[in-house]
Structures are given as structure tokens and as C-alpha cells.
Amino acid sequence: MEKYRAQMLIEALPHIQKYYGKTVVVKYGGNAMINEDLKDAVIHDIVLLSLVGVRIVVVHGGGPEISGMLKKIGKKSEFVKGLRYTDRETMDIVQMVLCGKVNKELVSLLNKAGGSGVGLSGMDDGLLQAVRKKDEDGTDYGYVGDIVKVNPKLVNDMLEDGYIPVVSTAAMGVDDDTSYNINADLAASKLAVALQAEKLILLTDVRGLLRDRNDENTLIPEIKVSAVPKLIKDGVIAGGMIPKVDCCVEAVREGVRQANIQDGRVEHSILIELFSDAGVGTMFY
Ligand SMILES: Nc1ncnc2c1ncn2[C@@H]1O[C@H](COP(=O)(O)OP(=O)(O)O)[C@@H](O)[C@H]1O
Ligand SMILES: CC(=O)N[C@@H](CCC(=O)OP(=O)(O)O)C(=O)O
């Protein structure tokens, strides 16, 4: 066992050097957030990364928790093109659940595990600024926002001081006094661009991008962003995977070096991706 650990450490060293002082944005949600053992592994990975000098930023989801709370008050969750239809009352619940419950729980767990987690929302210092989302076809999403500006100063300052920023994705309205609901993958992608991150990691509930979405043995380990449009056209990438892939493509096109869609069901998948030769999921570059 000790020999195995030593081997792992030797393999990890060049990777640790590679990521030292670099910014990594992790979108944390899905199974890895609901399963307690997986949650514990993610929290410890994030703390370890911070302790060895990686500038790590956590952007969290919480869709299932929001749906759970809505159900408790007798409200049904409605989704329009994969985004939650957000009326005024729903926006209040989104803000309470994401900024209050989920964010504070994560911050507390990070601190208990030896890190210095600090919770932020998109409202803090205008981190995420949004306008009401409008599609050309007139689709109404309620208080769902399109991010028009990111102010990463506070996050950068915190990273400089060794903190782990933990961001919930309620955004500040630029043109009005309301707040807006932002999909967490999208917020993570925009923040990664604003920080010019080395890597964006989107944790999800499948192995990554699959050539056949019904067969987990058909993982595409890496793909150039220029090859993505054809896969969408051919129907290989469909449904909930389209916006996720779009987030990765946009991030890489806007200066993030690599973006990963990877399996949140695998213990320590963040560490394996960053600090081993193995790599997991699909890397967009
Ligand atoms: N080529 C593909 N590879 C992997 N998953 C795909 C693909 N095309 C469509 N999908 C679907 O996308 C889903 C992931 O998107 P989604 O459920 O919205 O993720 P999350 O809940 O993590 O945000 C997969 O469960 C799968 O059904
Ligand atoms: C606009 C929109 O759909 N917002 C999401 C925000 C949370 C989220 O994205 O959480 P997951 O990553 O766990 O799905 C929602 O209300 O569910």
C-alpha cells in the first residue's frame, strides 16, 4: 500500500508543478453533490488542490435541491429548453437554496476539511451581471438571466490570499433591481473565461462525451472544439449534453486552455484528471 502511494506521488509531482499557481474552475453538481461519500471525496480533492497551490474556484449547482424545496411548498418545477422556468416566487426559492443552503453547506465542509472556503453569490461585487434572457423566438423563461458581464476581481483577490471561492449562481440584474437564475454550467464557463483559467471541469452523471450515448464504453477522451459542430449536426451530441458541450467550446474559444466534461460518480475524479497520467472524461482543447 505504501509503495502504491509513493508511486502515485511520484506520478503526480510533474502534474502538481504544472498546475501550481494556475486557475482551475470546477462546476460541482449532480450525483457528486448528493452522494455523501462522493461529496466527501470532492471536498477533500478541492482542499488538497488549494493546499498545493492550485487556484481553485468552485461553482456549484443545486437543481435537485431547488426542485425539492419547490415541491415542499407545493410548486411544480417546470423546464423550458433545459432551463428552469423561474417566476418571482421560484427566484426567491432559487436564491434561498443556492446562496443560503447549498453554498453555506459546501463552505462549511471545505473549512472542516482544512481549507479556507468563502461563499460568494453572483451579486457580490457584481461578480455575475445579467439581463433577462430573451430568445429570438420569444421564449419566456421568467427570471432566467443571460450573463452580460463578469467582474472577477473579488475572486482573483481571494485566490491571491489562498481562499477557495465557492460561487452560487444567482446573478445581479444590470438594468433592474432583481436577481436572475443562471444555469451553473454556464456560470462556470463564463467565470473561467473571465479568470482566463487553465482548466474548466464540469462534473456530470455520465463518463463524458460518448460516441453512442447509450453505451458508456464509447467515451471520446479528447476532441478539438472545431470538431464539435459536426457531432451536433450528426446527432451524436444531443439533449442535455448540447448546452454542456457549448459551455466547453465557448470557454476554450475565449481563452481557457482546456475544458473537461467528466464523471462526478467516480471518486477523486478531479484529482485523477489533474494529477495523474490517466485523465478522465472528455477533454476539449
Ligand atoms: N453524446 C453524448 N454523450 C453523453 N451524453 C449525452 C450525449 N448526447 C446526449 N447525452 C445526454 O446528456 C445527458 C447529460 O446532460 P444532463 O442530464 O443535462 O446533465 P447534468 O444533469 O449533469 O447537467 C446524459 O445523461 C445523456 O443522456
Ligand atoms: C436557469 C436554471 O436552470 N438554473 C438552475 C440553477 C442550478 C443548476 O444549474 O444546478 P445543476 O447544475 O445541479 O442543474 C436551476 O434553477 O436548476
Automatic annotation (TrEMBL):
Enzyme Commission (EC) number: 2.7.2.8
Reactions catalysed, as given in the entry: N-acetyl-L-glutamate + ATP = N-acetyl-L-glutamyl 5-phosphate + ADP
Entry keyword set: Amino-acid biosynthesis, Arginine biosynthesis, ATP-binding, Cytoplasm, Kinase, Nucleotide-binding, Transferase
Pathway: Amino-acid biosynthesis; L-arginine biosynthesis; N(2)-acetyl-L-ornithine from L-glutamate: step 2/4
GO molecular function: acetylglutamate kinase activity
Binding site for substrate: G62, G63, R84, N181
Keyword Transmembrane assigned: no
Superkingdom of origin organism: Bacteria
Class in the EC hierarchy, top level: transferase
Keyword Translocase: no
Principal location: cytoplasm
InterPro entries linked to this entry: AcgluKinase_fam, ArgB, Asp/Glu/Uridylate_kinase, NAGK-C
Entry-linked Pfam families: AA_kinase
Residues the record marks as site: Transition state stabilizer: K27, K244
Subcellular location as annotated: Cytoplasm
Segments forming domain Aspartate/glutamate/uridylate kinase: 22-261
Role according to the record: Catalyzes the ATP-dependent phosphorylation of N-acetyl-L-glutamate.
Family: Belongs to the acetylglutamate kinase family. ArgB subfamily.
Name of protein: Acetylglutamate kinase
Gene responsible for this protein: argB
